[in-house]
Amino acid sequence: MPITLTMPALSPTMEEGVLARWLVGEGDRIAPGDVVAEIETDKATMEYEAPEAGVVARIIVPAGNAAIAVNAPIALLAMEGEDVASVAAGGSPAAPAAAQAGTATPAASPPEAAPADAPAAAPAKPRLAASPLARRLARMHEVDLVALSGSGPHGRIVSRDVEDAVSAAAATTAPAPIAAPASSEPAAAPTADDPYRPGSYEIVELDAMRRTIARRLTESKQTVPHFYLRADIELDAALALRERINAAAPAGGDAGPAWKISVNDMMIKALACALRDVPEANVTWADGRMRRHKPVDVAVAVALDGGLITPVVRDAEKKTLSAISNEMKDLAARARERKLAPEEYQGGTTSLSNLGMFGVSSFDAVINPPHGTILAVGAAERRFVVRGEEDSAVATMMTVTLSVDHRTVDGALGTRLIAALKRLVENPLALLA
């Protein structure tokens, strides 16, 4: 019996995915565990492995198709002994073993003889061998695949053949003259439903990541009672410690793997240690109840093209600054390549978003449910600071904003948390303990 390959659920929250790329073609024989396709979720690009051995009889969903629902059919796989053409056509697979054994299938009635002048049945049209990408390009450019000669294996039409046909058609087709406008009527005016002039904008369809971000953050602002706590933190001691640590860090080679810590690494560690010191705030919200967590897992926002993702540094309160630095570099690099596994970006007990490197002085971050808090980190700036009546100076200051879910953390508890964070950053030797 043929196997139907379906869009897999690659994470608990996945509802649909994008079939980014097929790594096999129709007619290819595959074994269990072979990677047959790449699937884009709202967070990452992941490999889809074949569940069974067989032959790819038909690719139902070409590469590049977006918003494919979980469990929707994407391909048909013919099993050993099945007729690939029958499976591809959607019919019942042939049973050659029974035929070879000479076992006749009883019929309800003998077949009637066909009239002598009846036309013969038309032979089945052979299936055109073309890659999924070539088929998609052909549809986009209205190219007839039947007219092409394939340069791929066994005469298979590949994307290069379609591109060559498009280039050849463009070279032989003269540009049509620009017709004069049929009338001098003014362009259509905006309406009450659409106040913008027709043709003055283009529609941008949302990909899976942007749709997920829009849905989750809209739910967050509508259902989570946010409040915000702001603090100015003096950074000079932390910057001096960072400089000393980096000066002593190995440069690679025989000295060991090279690493350098950043201010962001120090803020991850400081937030984790603050939640360690104020464990009542290390909470998430689920089904009308709070979960108070023992480890502090910090989800860190990483910008991607068209969205963001929050890989998680687990047990951050126990890790050294160098370990956090190396882990964040690895997570961020693989996040931008859409190569994170679900367990690397799901969960977490709090979040951190840093826009300071972009020159943003301060901002209010939206809580990432089910977290109870998120820390927004602004830029390090030289400011004039008055510490007392006769004590003033220019110092490096940073404004941080703690967004809090009032269902889980009240004002007094949130104040204790941000005060603990300020104390740790301004006395950074505590981060090395």
Structure description:
With 433 residues, this protein is α+β, with helices and mostly antiparallel strands. The chain has two domains: 3-93 and 129-170, Beta Barrel (OB fold (Dihydrolipoamide Acetyltransferase, E2P)); 226-250 and 257-432, Chloramphenicol Acetyltransferase (2-Layer Sandwich), CATH 3.30.559. Helices cover 27% and strands 24% of the residues. Strand 13 (302-304) and strand 14 form a beta hairpin. The chain is elongated.
Give the SSE layout:
Elements: E1 3-6, E2 16-22, E3 29-30, E4 35-40, E5 45-49, E6 54-59, E7 68-69, E8 73-78, H1 84-89, H2 96-100, H3 132-141, H4 159-172, H5 208-223, E9 226-234, H6 236-248, H7 263-277, E10 283-286, E11 289-292, E12 298-300, E13 302-304, E14 307-309, E15 312-313, H8 321-336, H9 342-345, E16 350-354, E17 373-388, E18 391-405, H10 411-426
Parallel strand pairs: 12-16, 16-17
Antiparallel strand pairs: 1-8, 2-4, 2-7, 3-6, 4-5, 6-8, 9-18, 10-11, 12-15, 13-14, 17-18
> How much helical structure, as a percent, in the residues?
25-40%
| Biggest sheet architecture | 6 strands, mixed
The overall average pLDDT, rounded, is 83
Task: Identify low-pLDDT runs.
Answer: 91-126
CATH class bucket of the largest domain:
Alpha Beta
Question: Which outline best applies?
Answer: elongated
Structural class of the helices, strands and pairings?
alpha+beta
- Give the DSSP E fraction (strand runs of 2 or more residues): 15-25%
Tell me the number of helical segments per DSSP (H or I, 4 or more residues long). Answer: 10
**Topology as H/E string?**
EEEEEEEEHHHHHEHHEEEEEEHHEEEH
What is the CATH T-level topology of the largest domain? Answer: Chloramphenicol Acetyltransferase
CATH superfamily of the largest domain: Chloramphenicol acetyltransferase-like domain
Count up the domains.
2
Record field, number of beta strands: 18
- End-to-end separation: 62 Å
Gross CATH architecture of the largest domain: 2-Layer Sandwich
Q: How many whole angstroms does the radius of gyration measure?
A: 31 Å
Biggest sheet: strands side by side, in what order? 9-18-17-16-12-15
